[in-house]
Amino acid sequence: MPSKKRQLLTAVIGAGPSGLVAIKELLAQGHKVVCFEKSNDIGGLYVYNKNTGGVFKSTLLTSSSFTTCFSDFPPPKNSPLHFKHNEYLKYLKDYVAHFNLSHLIKFNHIVKNISQFKEGGWQVSVFDSLNDSEHIMKFDAVAVCSGAHQKPIMPNFQGQESFQGKIIHSDQYKEPSKFKDKIVVVIGGGESGSDIVDEVSQVAKKCFVSLRRGILTIPRLFFDFPSDYYTTRLFYSLPNWVLRIKSTPKVYFKRGVLFLLSSIPFLFPFFLFVFMVSLTPLFMQYVLMGLACILLLIALLRINEYFTQKVKPEDFQIISKLAKKSLVGHGEQFATKTEGLAKAIAQKRCDLKPGISEFRTEGVVFSDGSKINADAVIFCTGFKVSFPFLAKTKVDFRNFYKMCFDPNLGKTLCFIGFARPAIGSLPPVSELQARWFSRILSGERRLPNKDMLNMEIEQDRHKHQKTFKVVSNRLNNLVDFTSYMDDIAEHVGCKPKLKNLIKNPMLLLRLYFSPFGGYQYRLEGKHHKSEIAKKAIKQTSLDFIIVLFNYGLWSVNLTSRILYKIGFRSFRGSIGLD
Known about the structure:
FAD/NAD(P)-binding domain; 3 domains; FAD/NAD-bd_sf; 17 helices; alpha/beta; 16% strand; Flavin_mOase; five-stranded parallel beta sheet
């Protein structure tokens, strides 16, 4: 039922995934909404157009369909493990139809300017490109959902203007045929860069990838399941230093002690099984031990099949090499959740090069002094966020409260969809931000007073710089997926409570063993949809390999919790349920 509290007229800028979920959550809270979309369709960058920026022809999402979808609208049963861009666009259109949102979206409307009235509220100037007319409207609140992929970053190297080959940004890349039989240099190894290298290297005469430092690469699939199926609440409950920060001699020692002690709870059920079998008649001993051997054989065959047929050792060697060159740990940087680049290097389709120092007429010179002639250079160097309608051309999200609220603009303007998970999916983050904003506008939630707000911003900024070290300044909107989600969920009032979950042990087990996503935040709190959430969580696969992996994590978690309880404070878990 719509809230009977304050109902505000709210402008939503952008009809991509973040804008759509903002519309829906604002409506659920009883607010009135008008959404302005500059193009003629929903979906933002997921709309394929060969003449404009956005996705390229073969774009495949890096997060699984399970973790990408919104918490109250799970993917259909026949959905692929990963959406293609057109499949995800269809999902978004189904979402719009299901919640009846389309009549609230004004297409071909470009927001030109937003200004705040002294007495409160916002003046929004909008250009209707279809009718060539401009309108000025007044709103109580504004949700900025224009997306982080606004302006391509194009570094300017010495001599670049003299280069006679072709230079493009990944935003302009659509398909590889234009680079057939050419010598191509790709700058950058993010997710787009990795997939572009994989495609281009298959048709180019020669392909090079230039990286200033290494990258963390996570394969899309691991044992036939999306890699985010293994990044569970159980995984993220471990102390950060166990698997997520750069190794040091001290960390190696602590890990060794922890894993050694963890072998006790890990092996206990096996010893218990052997003991129980020894109490049975001899015939049953043979039967039970035979069954145990069959299960062990199945597991070994699965592991052997994966490492001999689906992933080659040289791929993992390249992934390991790139990770070491990144200089930081797995939880201290943005992850490239596709192995295309590593595979291309391993298969000798692409050569790895250091950063570029300068361009020349016929090619480029790298920082190690090596030179190559090139026909084309593709800049996969990311995007910068810009808000021209707010006169903000350079934004540092570390100065915002929880990456959402600019303290100088107040609580009635929220930036939704700009916090970028280092590992994880963006749509569920946007959904929680939208739920929080809608409740703030209703007066059901409050921001801290100015002094407290600025203190928390400074604390979060310090934590960001400590966590993300070498990338904090460049990727100032990067967040740790799980701790950020739990933090925003606490503000919303929808973080699941352990005391409630204990009443349903199988759901609790599934919650800890299933991929970390948004469904858990629909189990309780306002606008909860517990039946949908329970069904989605229970439908996730508990394949033998996934169960075995999580059982190992449980053993390490149990041991670290015991050590923490007896006084070893550094064994405290990263996240937890109260």
